[in-house]
Design brief:
Helix content is 40%, strand content 19%.
Length: 206
């Protein structure tokens, strides 16, 4: 009887291991970037990203097709942000420079969620201090809201009667490919080195 139970147990374990291996193989075949991905996205990668129309830091009206011409790191924030945005944007451009040393050209993109204060001129001054390839984007409140909705970001301005008002907002950075669309998002605690390593995994898996 013990041999029977042992046999059943071994068969169950084998089935479990086999089922797990099948699941992993199926997941990898369905997602060519499974080995690179560290986040779980509700609705899958296709649920994030999409078309937008904004104004770049030169004053030109552009669409997502105009600015995302290469793999890009997209971040939503605002220039008056006292701490989070400067740190995140600096991290992003450091990752871009590391990636360039690895042979990958990635564009850092900064989308303002404070269109009342972030004019193209303000955006130009901001991005030029961070990276020569950084693209700054702003627009009307409606354009900003549409872009934010496409990337499922959150933002809410505090009392605007105070000229020094702050804006609450989410702080993810998005890896977007011109052909594949959204690929991955990164949290604030991700270091430049970690970001560059993960981004390179996606780019080399193409």
């Amino acid at each position: 009887m013990l041999k029977v139970y042992a046999g059943i147990a071994v068969a169950a374990v084998a089935a479990l291991v086999g089922g797990s291996a099948w699941y992993v193989l199926q997941r990898q075949s369905a997602d060519p970037y499974a080995q690179c991905r560290q986040s779980a996205i509700a609705g899958g990668p296709g649920a994030i990203g999409g078309p937008f129309t904004l104004v770049d830091h030169t004053g030109r009206t552009v669409t997502d097709k105009d600015v995302i011409t290469k793999p890009s790191l997209v971040y939503f924030g605002y220039t008056f942000c006292p701490d989070v945005c400067p740190l995140d944007n600096t991290r992003n451009v450091e990752a871009v420079d590391i990636l360039e040393e690895m042979g990958h050209e990635v564009t850092p993109i900064f989308i303002s969620i404070d269109p009342d204060r972030d004019t193209p001129e303000v955006m130009a001054s901001y991005v030029e201090t961070l990276h020569p390839r950084m693209i700054g984007l702003t627009g009307t409140p409606e354009q900003t809201q549409a872009a934010s909705k496409a990337y499922r970001t959150y933002y809410k301005a505090q009392d605007k009667s105070d000229e020094y008002y702050l804006v609450d907002h989410s702080t993810f950075t998005y890896l977007v490919d011109p052909e594949k669309g959204f690929l991955e998002f990164f949290k604030r605690e991700t270091t430049p080195e970690e970001m560059a390593e993960q981004v390179s995994c996606f780019l080399e898996a193409k």
